[in-house]
């Protein structure tokens, strides 16, 4: 996998040699249906569009949707199948310099699991209607979790790019 | 894997037969060091303890920590290695009845990826000091993300157990 990076690094970027073997495995449990079929069309984040998207859960996992309509918001975890995995320092197109991967929400990361907080609009059988997604149509779903304001909402959190030690 | 559930289901619980093969693989990128060495000692959630915990990132991934100290809060994703994976309807000990897995934050889920929002207290080389974890000492780390209040904080979100359709 380190071979992914023998060319294609931008100045200042760094790649790690990933292990040959995986430590654990994932099951895709459904698909996210969105209006965006190429990367350039995707909103920059989940608040960048009002589009209503669909979470289509595969039948074996659909019983796990029970009680979910009691939640106003959900956390969705999904898999960025096309992401480069070895980049540890990367230079986002709109940044003024290289940044550590763990300071970014870029899909390029050792485990390309993306996370969005979405508003739950309703359920129709095995599918949920949600608002707040930013990903490509057909993106594999990994998990659905209830969003608890008590533990998940930190409205005072800040990200200060200038104040970070390099 | 469905064999995990040939016994041990509580009344009302349901298990799915998981596929034989995985769809994607994960790399463990570090370990969470916490004061809790058995499950009974773990707090119920990250706000249940003031303990300062440590995120120990493995050396190949440590360059990805660059710029992370500009964040007051982080999202940690980690792997619940001991969790049962097939349960789609489960009966938490303190609930009044069976619940869909996607309405719960239980570690037992098809992809046992846990998520905590933590306060970042500081960085010492390859390790971060954080507050807000709830997991066993030695838990495998999957990802570190910056927490953005603009997209991740929903202080008005609610979970209404009674109002959910079954």
Write a concise synopsis of the structure shown.
The structure is a homodimer of 166-residue chains. The first copy, chain A, is mostly beta strands.
CATH superfamily of chain A: YaeB-like
Oligomer: homodimer
Globally, the shape of chain A reads globular
CATH architecture of chain A: Beta Barrel
Mean pLDDT of chain A equals 91
Show unreliable segments of chain A: 1-6
- Which fold name is given in CATH as the topology of chain A? Elongation Factor Tu (Ef-tu), domain 3
In angstroms, what separates the terminal alpha carbons of chain A?
27 Å
* Class based on secondary structure composition and strand pairing of chain A: mainly beta
CATH class of chain A: Mainly Beta
Rounded Rg of chain A: 17 Å
In order across it, which strands form the biggest sheet of chain A?
3-4-9-8-5-10
Order of helices and strands of chain A: EEEEEEEEEEH
Number of helices of chain A: 1
Question: What percent of residues of chain A adopt helix (DSSP H or I)?
Answer: under 10%
Q: How many domain modules of chain A?
A: 1
User: Which two chains form the greatest contact, residue counts included?
Assistant: A-B, 80 and 80 residues
Proportion of strand residues of chain A: 25-35%
| Count of individual beta strands of chain A | 10
